[in-house]
Write a structure and sequence with these properties.
This protein is an alpha/beta fold and 431 residues long. The protein folds into 2 domains: 32-209 and 416-430, 3-Layer(aba) Sandwich (Rossmann fold), CATH 3.40.50.2000; 224-414, Rossmann fold, CATH 3.40.50. Helix content is 48%, strand content 16%. It contains 19 helices and 15 strands. It has helices at residues 2-28, 35-38, 59-75, 88-97, 111-121, 135-143, 157-164, 170-178, 188-197, 210-214, 224-231, 249-263, 279-288, 322-328, 347-351, 366-375, 387-396, 398-414, 418-430; strands at 51-56, 80-85, 102-105, 125-129, 148-153, 182-185, 204-206, 239-245, 268-273, 292-295, 301-302, 312-315, 331-334, 356-358, 378-380. Helix 3 (59-75) runs parallel beside helix 4. The longest helix has 27 residues, at 2-28.
Length: 431
């Protein structure tokens, strides 16, 4: 049985990598997830109706499930939906979005763990977000006749394709992808890559991205004024919001901010790092650079020693408030794009009609960035040196900001519909 082969490979990997696993557990702290959930002892589903199990690995994928869950509730009210996630931030977001649904930590990919989870959840269909494929889950589900589909599917050329085509991995990967019941790919390029990896062509459909549907198209986000009041953000002054930033970017942004303040002394800056474990690190960097750090979590400023009246930098160190910051922004920079980290989701800010700037590294969101750039809703700069001028230009020209924001929002609205197409396929598989 193939699942036994996978189990042996995983055991070998654990045997070789246990020092690293211990190190990660020590540096990241203890998880509040019950240990039993890692081994499939997840909450039991009490009712006998049809069930859709949706799995999303992290925060961005969890946010993209919102429209799926809403559409399933509307079109099939009796169908039970359960959700799982892998990362700490993803699981916290899942619990926040769906307090009345069964949510749990995705089990380790051992066959016995998935059998235990399937016994307790009893799904009729399993939906994996983007490319969250796991060999044993798909193998065990196939043994039980449970269709597994991929929603919002995307495959990166430099990472995923290369990994799955490694000579040692390729035979296992092709077997796994052949067992997928259906793929809803975000665009034609991703669809071709899924087919090349082994998914039969007649099971791949280009649906578009769910994130276009999930992006809030609004002029106002509830709570944004309270956020500004709590942090001391002055709505009468321009605010530059840098969201989902990654390691190495905050220093570049602070350099640009120092230069921008020479031209626009009243400019405000808000930094929102993507990873919660980096909040303290970024706070220390802000103070080190001579700014006062105003943290959202405490409301108390941290002032660099020996500096009289340092200019403040606002640090968004809470979860689930990025859209509020974006709604307050005059100009938005979307992070993990000045450094080679693949970029971050641009749809949230575009749906709020905010003028966007991204760096050169956006391959994880290439289709959305290309769309927004082509439609005039986003500027993609070549590197850190171009950042101050790009921000300054938009600060000096309100008509350009307004035009960019409107173009970005229109591009988002024109690409909606992936949710309906995906839910139609889920309901077809439900019978």
């Amino acid at each position: 049985m193939m699942s036994r082969v996978y189990d042996l490979l995983y055991l070998l990997a654990v045997g070789l990598g246990w020092p690293y696993l211990l190190y990660r557990r020590r540096t990241r702290g203890r998880s509040d997830v019950p240990l039993r959930e890692y081994f499939g002892r997840v909450p039991s589903r009490p009712v006998s109706a049809s069930c859709v199990w949706i799995h999303a690995v992290s925060l961005g994928e969890v946010n993209a499930t919102r429209t799926l869950v809403e559409e399933l509730r509307q079109r099939s009210p009796d169908t039970v939906v359960v959700l799982s996630s892998t990362t700490r931030t993803g699981l916290e977001r899942t619990r926040t979005l769906y307090p009345r649904l069964i949510t749990f930590r995705f089990p380790l990919d051992f066959s016995f763990a998935h059998r235990a989870a399937l016994d307790r959840v009893r799904p009729s269909v399993i939906v994996l977000m983007e490319l969250e494929v796991w060999p044993n889950l798909i193998e065990v589900a196939a043994e039980r006749g449970i269709p597994v589909l991929i929603a919002n599917g995307r495959v990166t050329a430099d990472r995923s394709v290369r990994r799955f085509n490694h000579p040692l991995v390729r035979p296992f990967a092709r077997r796994m992808f052949r067992q997928i019941a259906w793929v809803g790919a975000q665009d034609d390029t991703y669809a071709e890559r899924f087919i090349a990896l082994g998914v039969p062509a007649d099971r791949v459909t280009v649906t578009g991205s769910l994130k276009y549907d999930a992006a809030d198209v609004a002029d106002h986000i509830p709570g944004q004024e309270q956020l500004a009041a709590d942090m001391g953000i002055d709505p009468s002054r321009p605010l530059w919001v840098c969201g989902s930033t990654g390691p190495g970017e905050e220093a570049l942004i602070l350099d640009a901010y120092t230069r921008l303040r020479e031209q626009t002394p009243d400019l405000q800056l808000a930094l929102i790092p993507r990873k919660p474990e980096r909040f303290d690190e970024v706070a220390a960097l802000i103070v080190q650079r001579g700014f006062a750090c105003l943290r959202r979590s405490t409301g108390q400023p941290t002032v660099p020693p020996g500096v009289t009246e340092p200019p403040p930098v606002f640090l968004g160190d809470t979860l689930g408030e990025l859209r509020k910051f974006y709604a307050l922004a005059t100009v938005v920079f979307v992070g993990r794009s000045l450094v080679p980290m693949g970029g971050s989701d641009v749809m949230e800010a575009a749906g709020l009609a905010r003028p966007l700037i991204v760096g050169p590294y956006t391959e994880n969101f290439a289709e959305a960035v290309s769309l927004l750039v082509a439609e005039g809703g986003c500027r993609q700069i070549t590197g850190p040196d171009a950042l101050p001028n790009a921000v300054s230009d938009l600060l000096r020209h309100p008509e350009r900001r307004e035009k960019m924001g409107a173009a970005g929002r229109a591009a988002i609205v024109s690409r909606r519909g992936a949710t309906a197409r995906t839910v139609t396929q889920i309901l077809t598989l439900l019978g």
